[in-house]
Amino acid sequence: MARDIKGLVFDKDGTLFDFRKSWGGWAQGLLTQMASDRAHARRLGQAIGYDLETGVFAPDSPVIAATAADIALALSTHLPGRGTAEITAHINAAAAMAPMAEAVPLVPLMTALKARGLSLGLATNDTEVPARAHLAAHGLTDLFDFIAGYDSGHGPKPGPGMCQAFARQTGLDPRQCAMVGDSLHDLHAGKAAGMTAIAVLTGIAGREELRPAADVILPDIGALPAWLDGCEF
Known about the structure:
Helices cover about 45% and strands about 10% of the residues. By secondary structure, it is an alpha/beta fold. A 6-stranded parallel β-sheet has the order 5-4-1-6-7-8, sandwiched between helices. It has a two-stranded antiparallel sheet with strand order 2-3.
């Protein structure tokens, strides 16, 4: 039996785009650029839960689900003389240029979801400008009815503001919508807004971490059509 879902809100990093492939190289470049030497770059990496040598993010890294301002705050202790506003601006400029690796082929999937009559939204703890740049680079902007970053006026996740704004803008009851994401921040935001919480495994968090907050766990967003058609996962 098909599920009565009329709107899908997607997280960006780790959901639309594979987190490790997209942000590992970006972090390497950012930290090396900001540091005075290799040892300094390693300290910066440690401050944000990133191992410069292995390219691995710690599960609690602020890069995974926090905002650019949060990342800047974590780095600021190791960048004397540079304010958090300056560091945040540097992060946002670098993020907008970061090449994103699609978790699955996105244009065919989003086109198919739109063909079902679904409204689509993006709710990310990235800032809105880089988020729009990433969507545009992959030909996705026009497929989304709603795009918001943490600085768009609705607050960051895990607060429900972006999800609630999506429901208002599309005229949907939140109970007819699902939040799709790879982190507990995403799932908690969806739940707080009254939406179904769909977890995917293309981020850093594993199944066991996500299970308590998820209504369903999918391998990636490519499984959404089957789930909407009533398949169990």
